[in-house]
Design brief:
The protein is mostly helical. The protein is built from 10 helices and no strands. The chain binds zinc ion.
Length: 186
Amino acid sequence: MGRTGILQGKKDDLVKDLKETSLSFEKLGKKYEVSRQAIYDFCKRQGIERPKRPRGHQTGECRLCQKLIQISKKPRSEFISIHTIPKETGESWAKCYNHLRTLRDKGLVSQRFGRLRSKKIEKAYAIYFTKRLPIRTIGRKVGIKNFQSLIRQHRRSGWNVPPSLYVYDGREKRRVLSEVQRRKHA
Ligand SMILES: [Zn+2]
């Protein structure tokens, strides 16, 4: 182990390191060629308060994580796109994504939250949930050709897409069915 005495000429440097860095006593000991204990004792004697070490990421204390959890608890949060999430948190998507990954790993948000990339699809769903319109009309409104098949895909991957508010009458039903048939044979 190193010496217990800190060299006279080095004391000012050490005081500075103790006050301004979060280097451990161990590391400072190596730097000043004394024991860890000697650094600790010196620090105590001088009454130096060490700066707090940057803490590991604590989702419980992270404002952004808490905000993301809050958004994810909204009904149908999987239909909120990655363009809207940053707007609601006030942080960039890159930053949100980092925190979101941790939250997903910990199971604190749904795996499906933060997966929707398209603003258009988000818009289409917003209409789908609230307006009594044929799916094709919604698709046309927002500029998506295959909204119906997107809905099917999303359902297959476990998204909870409720039935359309639009009640297809006999004619419309037949039209949709014949279109489905046509596609099958295409
Ligand atoms: Zn966080």
